[in-house]
Amino acid sequence: MALPALVLEHAHHTTATKQSSFILSNSSSKVIDPPVAHQRRLAQYHPTIWGPKLIDSFSTRYTHESYASKLEDLKQNVSEDLHVLSTKAKGDAWLTLKLIDSMQRLGVAYHFDKEIKAAIVTLVSSSTASTTTDLQTVALQFRILRQYGISISSNLFNQFRNCEGSFKDSLSNDVEGLLSLYEASHLGMPGEDVLEEAKRFCSKNLKQSMAKLKDDNLLKRVAQSLQTPLHWRMPRIEALNFITMYQREDSKNLQALLELAKLDYNLVQSVHQMEIKELSRQVYMETWWRELDLKSKASFSRDRLMENYMWAMGICYDPQFLQCRIGLTKFVCILTVIDDMYDVYGFLDELEHFTDAVTQWNMEAKEELPEYMKPIYIAMLEFGNDLADNIFKNTGLNTLPYIKNEWINLCKAYIVEARWFYGGYTPTLEEYLKNAWTSVGGPGAMLHAYLLTQGSQLTEASLESFNHGSQMIYWASIITRLTDDLGTSKAERERGDVAKSIQCYMDEKGASEEEACDYIKGLICHSWKKINQESAKTTIPRSIVNLSQNMARAAHCIFEHGDGIGNSIGVTKDRLVSLIANPIPLDD
After folding, report:
1. Out of 19-28, 40-49, 115-124, 388-397, which region has the weakest mean confidence (pLDDT)?
2. How far is Cα 95 from Cα 183, in angstroms, rounded to an integer?
3. What pLDDT is recorded for position 12?
4. What's phi and psi for 30, nearest 5 deg?
5. pLDDT band, residue 11 (cuts 50/70/90)
6. What is the mean pLDDT of residues 377-389?
7. Which of 324, 409, 534, 582 gives 472 a disulfide partner, CB atoms 3.0 to 4.6 angstroms apart?
8. Is 25 a residue whose pLDDT tops 60?
9. How many angstroms separate the CA atoms of 410 and 315, rounded?
10. pLDDT digits over 413-432, tens only?
11. How many CB atoms lie within 10 A of CB 222?
12. Consecutive H or E run containing 273
């Protein structure tokens, strides 16, 4: 798809100001009759399908205590394989690249970070890596180097173009090469026309090839990539998927890698399983959550502990970041209730009072709130204050201003949308996105994830470096917002919620729903290019790069087949079963 006519450009900002600007032509807004607000609205969300008893029943025999020795043996074998390939097989860069790619996709690369970086250094210095003319190898090398933040020009793909600048027709039957190039094209940045042309060329030829492919595994890989490119996929989902595909391929020489991937998947799953059980006990037993009492005082809201944990797992899946996932899940649980309160249940005057109370950030402010709002306000306040207190005890740093600022910005963004709804106002797409990148909760989630992953290593300097990632967080939040809109707009439109990006574009441009959806998808592609551009900057900590990319990937996963949170009975349920409840069977 060609670049969208609208090119979003985000002005420099910090997390404190939350200012943004866009270039948009022919803007127009629309005022419609305001809704009758004499009775409260309800979204009729289904009750949770993951009660505390069910969560507590989860169990697994795959624990680190029982399998630590086997895990280390397999890691040693894989490490040796990588060393042999990268140092003794310099004549074949493909083997090294393929192993690194497989380690990433199987979800075990985090065990070999130093070894992989050393192999890449060796690879880059190898003359064969830079002179190969094999499309599959060149594209894979390009993708892996960009994933690791190593500068590489997209001009190396010019060798596959003819004198007129088009990709050579002779490539059209090289399905593996086309697939590799298609995946590489999603690491492109704004202005890299050769990668945009590559994406179109590969998409067209891969679609045509599907009717002829005899290899079922290759056919599935092509179909999956055309639906969701690898760069956009949630890592834990991809690990499970690739394990299934990998064991069907010719991997006899790397059997240790497959065994490691299966065992590691189960061991990481055991950590996640322990966390969700602990969260269930904390959330349903802690005073602030009991007072919230979703079943009575906040029955209007989505009760989605497991689904909210999926957000946290998607953003930060590395087993060592236990406290991050627990804290982030609590953050999303509170955010969800507040979001539903602003979106659906609250009257405008009540929501104005709540917004004012959040700005004051003290217990006395709750006295001005309706009874149903008080426990929600207390939950937010206590969670934020407790997090800041814990960080201060560990680091001596006062992070409360940062935490408080994100909640204030979030609720100010919510109240803007509530005013639009009660005023019967449909914003332009520019107006909508200027507010919606904050109201989706991305900036707040990224701050909490960053604070919780830094732990005792947090310093004034690292807090300052967080601001260097503001553009990265912005574009990841835009993707989260737009994928959310694509997945939820139909249900929200049917119940009369405030207009989202699709409706804004339709009203502004007189476009059909299909045209609007295509346009929003184009903006998502553009936003990924901006993320790729930000990722290449050495001033941004890699942790912010990874957290931001993973938030966008989690959004793609959760909203891929509709509203994976509001209606979480279908694909979301199946994925959670695979991610948390059911281990991969092992022959041991």
Report:
1. 19-28
2. 18
3. 39
4. -140, 135
5. very low
6. 95
7. 534
8. no
9. 19
10. 999 999 999 999 999 999 99
11. 22
12. helix 255-285
What's the Cα-to-Cα distance from 418 to each of 243, 341, 348, rounded to whole Å?
A: 45, 10, 7
DSSP string, 282-341: HHHHSHHHHHH-TTTTTTTS---HHHHHHHHHHH---TT-HHHHHHHHHHHHHHHHHHHI
Amino acid identity of 151? S
Distance CA 73, CA 89 (A): 23
Contacts of residue 178, defined as CB under 8 A and 6 or more positions apart, other chains included, come to 135, 171, 172, 201, 202, 205, 206, 209
Closest CA to 581 of 264, 272, 234: 272
Cβ(191)–Cβ(147) under 8 Å?
no
pLDDT band at 288 (very low <50, low <70, confident <90, very high): low
Residue 22 confidence (pLDDT): 32
**Can you tell me which residue has the tokens 């069910």?**
54
| pLDDT mean over 427-449 | 97
What gap in Å lies between CA 230 and CA 184, rounded to an integer?
9
Q: Show the tokens assigned to 17.
A: 């100001």
398: which residues sit within 8 A by CB, 6+ positions away? Answer: 388, 392
Q: How far apart are CA 4 and CA 23, in angstroms?
A: 12
- What distance in Å separates the CA atoms of residue 351 and residue 370, rounded to the nearest whole number? 10
- Backbone angles phi and psi of 425, in degrees to 5: -110, 130
- Region for residue 32 given its phi and psi (left: phi exceeds 0; alpha: psi -120 to 50; beta: otherwise): beta
More confident residue, 240 or 286: 240
At residue 133 the predicted structure's pLDDT band, cuts being 50, 70 and 90, is confident
* AA identity, residue 210: M
**Residue 539: which H helix or E strand, with range?**
none
What's the whole-number mean pLDDT along residues 184-190?
98
379 vs 80: CA distance, rounded Å: 50
Upper half-sphere CA count for residue 510 (Cβ side, 13 Å) = 1
Say how many C-beta atoms besides its own lie within 10 A of residue 570's C-beta.
11
Res 264 pLDDT > 50: yes
Q: Of 75, 85, 155, 86, whose CA–CA distance to 120 is shortest?
A: 86
User: From start to end of 217-267, where are the E strands?
Assistant: none
Q: Tokens for 210? A: 């599907």
Q: Which pLDDT score, from 0 to 100, does residue 42 have?
A: 79
Residue 167: phi, psi to the nearest 5? -70, 140
**Percent of the chain whose predicted confidence (pLDDT) is above 70:** 89
Rounded to whole angstroms, the Cα distance separating 104 from 131 reads 25
Helix (H) or strand (E) holding 272, with range, is: helix 255-285
pLDDT at 21: 32
Cα 187–chain centre separation: 16
For 18, the token pair is 């939350």
- As a three-state string, the secondary structure of 475-526 is HHHHHHHHHHHHHHHHHHHHCCCCCCHHHHHHHHHCCCHHHHHHHHHHHHHH
Q: Is the pLDDT of residue 283 over 90?
A: no
pLDDT tens for 219-234 read 999 999 999 999 999 9
User: Mean pLDDT, to the nearest integer, of 533-537?
Assistant: 94
**Whole-Å CA distances, 85 to 101, 123, 176:** 13, 10, 22
Supply 243's token pair: 């394990």
Interior angle at CA 149, CA 101 and CA 79, nearest 5: 40
